[in-house]
User: What shape does this take?
Amino acid sequence: MKRNAALAAALAGVVMLTLWFGTYWPASHWTVVPRAQLLEKGRQAAAHFGVDVGGWQAYAVASVLKQGAAPLQLRITYVAKESKRAAEIGFDSSGALTYWRAPEDERGPKFASNEAAAQAAFQYMAGAEAARYQSPRRSAGDDAGEDEYEFRRVPGAPFRERIKVTAKDAAVERVERKTYASLSDEDDDDDDGYWGILAALSGVMQTAGFVVVLSVFILWVARKSISGVFQRRMAAGTFLIMLAALLLGSGWDKIHSVNLEHDTPGVVAFYTALTMLLYAAVGRGISAKARPKWMSLEQLCLLAPVAKATGESIAAGVLFSPLLAAIPFLIVACGLFPGSSVWPQEAALLYDRAPLWDSGEMKVFLVLLLFFGFVVPALERLVRFGWLRWVILLPLGTVLFAYVWRGVSGPLDAALTAGLLTLALFWFVWAQFDLLAVLTMQLAGGFVMALLILGQKHEGAWIFVLALLLLALAALWCYRRGQEVAQGDPLATNPMLTGFRAEREKLLAEFSVARRAQQDMLPQAMPEIPGYSIAASCTPSLEVGGDLYDFLNLQDGRIGIGVADVSGKGVPAALYMTLTKGLLSSVTKNSSELGPVVEEVNRHLHSVTRKKVFVTMALGFLDAKKRVLECVRAGHNPMVWRQKGKGLTTLVTPGGLGLGITGSKVFGAQLKVEELALAEGDAVVFYSDGITEAMNASLEQFGEQRLMEAVERADSLEATAAHDSILGEVRSFLDGVHPQDDMTLVVLRVGG
Amino acid sequence: MANPFSIHKSTEQGLSVLALEGYLDAHTAPEFEKAVQGEFQAGHIQMVVECSRLTYISSAGLGVFMSFIEEIREAGGDIKICALAPKVFQVFDILGFSALFDIVPDLPAAVERYREAPVKET
Assistant: This one.
């Protein structure tokens, strides 16, 4: 199911993007000047203003204006190496000059007056259009000798434009051209409309979240230190995190102001890594139930034995990512939200020197970790009622995701719907997979968008193809090389308990002796029955288990096949398991009659077991030549009988009580023997409840239905392959969760 | 994380009712065992185990029912089981408990059953 959902999502996402990207991606209609050409243009413009920036270091940054008629704004900063003087030049996406700021103390040629300087700059900026501007308004600048001149375009054009020149001491200091898409737009920068409210709301939520995470973490550390479990390794981690908190100063605000334009990738990575570590540490502590969701991410961070689940999570993230990228396009294309458009935030990538770095926005990763790794588990723990959790989470998540993704601009309902859809998709991936899948989806979604943007206009898209391929390879590698994570064993995974390791090692050594002894007691080889194939396995969940399977050579030439399960787990169960095996083989020495054999075993077990221990058993006596299987079910799970020829799959459920429960005649009265007339291709599957009650991270059981379907799917396979395929389905259902109970599976196939 | 389990004791027309809630597994079975033993020793041998809020039972939990039933029945009492959720009932049923215990839909039915047959006939 999960696999199909992921494939369907990938397909849907790719189809939507293919259909709509060209039409609705705003930047499709922009002209984009190549970077090198742009830098050269900048140099020429600077030369016009009397500053020679040849040989200066150039930094180019792109940003997107919401209301601009030419939304993509490019800003180049030229820095003189020795003197650290800097000049700034801006262009819009059509290549028109929009900004100039002269370096301090080097303002180019002097004019007769401030006004003359402003006029000269204005003429250069406006060119042939100069006649369409009104005469300038002058206002005094901030500094002495500084004047600002504002030239407004004559109204009537479909857009509004103004050119502002600041002149000081008769030289041009700064020139700025602003263009607005519509006349109704305020020509003030701080008009954010409802985005301002969304930003404020999501900011408050994020800050509150961060503060709570930090407090919980400090409390947790304090408690661990007091209880003495606090280890060196954790101390080192805490020190680092404390250092981070210190460096961050004002906490969350600072990390948000870490600016890709000004800080080096290293600085941003440092902040991000430390904050993620903090969240991870707290997330671990917050809820044991949430642990499975953290598991893959933890394994990856520790570079610990890579698990199969890690591979699945990464693969899921990659497969779901096109759908994530397609959500804004879906909103705009569906026609329900007139006036909405895709918000071309990522268009800035077009001028990026390191597009791979900028494609993933770190803030978003942190918000995802905060939301799914922390807020959701915390609510699950603190709020008892499911509906109340949703009442809190739904609006919170919608606003948060609407703002943080900002995929759509336009009416508020479009933005909120985008937020809701994004939340729903992330939620689905989180619920079906885990946190790692969520984070991978965000990362890969960025890659997909970048691939489309760069692929359309620019070279350099290959790096994103490569990045996506690498992710897919990583997923494959983890899946192939990975191990099942031993999640049910807290000692194996909890570094807090390393102190107990030595003691544990000693116990383990003793257990391994017991386990070997027990495994030795299981049949070493499958019986060879002409015209049949047979396969069996028993996987204890603890070191020693209470499950058993056995094959018996009966006196009358038939073959006995049995599976039994002792109540309880661990050592006591294992001891009774040994007893049951002994009883079974000794009783069958004297009798080959199924009913009496089982009654005899029951009598012995009842007389020796303590009252609350019982054994359930499914036992079949096979007449290989006549193809008749006699079965009993002593309180055990029913056998699955697959009749291939008839296309039937049934549970064989003759009546019967568990062994050792009662010594009275009730046992015999309840025990029924059922005869199965087998045919070519049929399969009979014996198993223990560890198979049907195997529980995954979402607390679903594998169940009889899935087992029967698994048996049907293995129709064409001989016993060993069928056995492996069924067990494989159980494992992929468990998805890395360690089985809670012993799992025993015996497959008998007629033919082959 | 330990799975939550609790027992609520009450009496209903002279019968001692143990209402189980949550997970009855190897970890929580001793608590249940103590409760049944307590009732038995106090002479309350007519018991009803009410399971409407029992979400899971493992073999260790089933073992508790068995460990006392013979003694209780010899003393003239019984344990009747009522209000099992379908999933939990399936566990009882697979093991054949329906042949050993009176399993009834609800508490009034358990009271009724005590009137008809104080000890299950086997």
Summary: Chain A is about 50% helix and 15% strand. The two ends of chain A are 31 Å apart (CA to CA). Residues 182-192, 226-232, 248-265, 485-500 of chain A have pLDDT under 50 and may be disordered. The longest strand of chain A covers residues 171-180.
